[in-house]
Write a structure and sequence with these properties.
The chain is mainly α. It has 17 helices and no strands. The longest helix is centred in the N-terminal third of the chain and has 31 residues. The chain is globular and about 60 Å long.
Length: 424
């Protein structure tokens, strides 16, 4: 295998950032499993309690992240990340000792808040230390970490819970954050990068400066067509995915999967995501037309989602192996959407605005993810899970087709801005 995808790891600062992300991602997914097990099995609460945990997990990204990211852009990124990790360790301790759902939700919210600050700082740091020529590989490695931990952490978490009890993953999560801090301690100072990118002048009042900088991040998204269309496409895709995500287990039951082999279906999606990330890391020609790849992946994945819905209705009858291969392909196509999006976000955003722009984009995506499950459940009650799945697949294909037509009609409007303003 060519070393293309691993090129950025030759850079010492990126090695530190990537090492920290690996253990941070591991902790995040251990956390997600442990929270659901405690609420559903340990405390015996219902679906409403699980939904409240998921909503509170996402809320800080929507209501706090975009505003707090202004301060993230002002502050030293290394210090912000280390402080956020230290606070996450404290809040994980709160989760471990939480005696009831309300206290648990408080610490879930607090931990989500520092996570919403950590990620923009990490995105900014990547943009500072990785040259433009290595951005596709760096973004792909970052996405590879997320996709790999989605597979590894639930399996590890399940084993830890079986051996040590439902709250034990929190201890491993805290240990993971400690390891992340150690990696960041080896991160060279980013002061020189931050000073060169610092365009903030002294203003008469802090309030004026804050709102000016906050609005600049939003305006940049509207003034960068490639970035704007990528965020819209990504947010819409997230909404559609989470529309049917909670219904997937019911469809799986209808197409012949039981509780014993349902995990294989989910693991296949994760394995496909990892394979897709590796493939895109080795072949980076897509970075010339990233939105074309995102749109094409949406069109193809939509057809797979429709097929699953038709299987739930009994129109398609395949053996489990065929469905598992299809799930793997669905994961691979998912990487075809997430990796190019991450590249566009990094390459089309000036270094000094990275925190604000990434937080604003994440806010829109998280909002889509929060409202979608409720809409999916409501539609499922009215139409049935299979019809929601078919509708979601058709919507995904239509979304990708529409975006491709827009790009082809206005091809001149979607040129990268890297050379014009990224380093200016």
């Amino acid at each position: 295998m060519k070393p293309g995808i691993f090129k950025p790891l030759k850079l010492k600062p990126f090695r530190s950032l990537f090492g920290a992300q690996l253990f941070s991602d591991l902790g995040n997914w251990l956390d997600f499993i442990a929270l659901q097990v405690i609420v559903a099995y340990h405390w015996g609460l219902d679906e409403t309690a699980i939904a409240s945990v998921i909503i509170v997990l996402g809320l800080p990204w929507v209501i706090i992240g975009p505003f707090a990211s202004v301060f993230v852009d002002r502050l030293p990124k290394k210090a912000v990340m280390i402080v956020c990790l230290l606070l996450r360790i404290v809040f994980v301790g709160g989760l471990f000792y939480a005696p009831n759902l309300y206290i648990l939700l408080l610490f879930v919210f607090l931990k989500g808040t520092v996570s919403a600050l950590y990620d923009p700082a990490r995105q900014s740091a990547i943009r500072m230390v990785v040259p433009d020529s290595m951005l596709p590989e760096a973004v792909t490695l970052s996405q590879l970490s997320v996709n790999t931990m989605k597979i590894a952490a639930p399996a590890l978490g399940g084993g830890i819970i079986a051996v040590l009890g439902p709250k034990s993953p929190f201890l491993f999560e805290a240990a993971g954050f400690v390891v992340s801090i150690i990696f960041l301690l080896f991160l060279p100072s980013l002061t020189s990068f931050e000073e060169s990118d610092n365009r903030m002048a002294e203003t008469s009042t802090v309030k004026t400066s804050f709102w000016k900088e906050f609005s600049e991040g939003i305006k940049h998204i509207f003034h960068a067509p490639l970035l704007r269309i990528s965020i819209i496409l990504s947010s819409a895709a997230f909404f559609i995915i989470f529309l049917y995500d909670g219904l997937f287990i019911f469809i799986a039951k209808q197409i012949g999967f039981n509780e014993g082999n349902f995990g294989l279906l989910i693991s296949a999606v994760g394995a496909g995501s990892v394979a897709g990330s590796l493939l895109l890391g080795q072949w980076t020609g897509w970075n010339r037309k990233p939105v074309h790849l995102m749109s094409s992946s949406a069109i193809l994945s939509g057809t797979f989602i429709v097929a699953v819905g038709l299987g739930g209705l009994g129109f398609l009858n395949f053996p489990p192996l065929v469905w598992i291969i299809g799930a793997c392909l669905l994961g691979l196509l998912g990487a075809g959407e997430s990796v190019p999006y991450g590249y566009v976000l990094q390459s089309e955003t000036p270094k000094q605005m990275m925190g604000r722009v990434s937080a604003a984009a994440m806010s829109l995506q998280t909002f889509s993810m929060l409202i979608a499950p409720a809409a999916g459940a409501l539609l499922a009650k009215q139409l049935g899970a299979s019809f929601v799945m078919i509708g979601a697949g058709l919507a995904t294909t239509l979304l990708g087709s529409t975006m491709l037509m827009i790009i082809w009609k206005k091809s001149g409007s979607f040129q990268p801005i890297r050379g014009k303003q990224l380093d200016g």
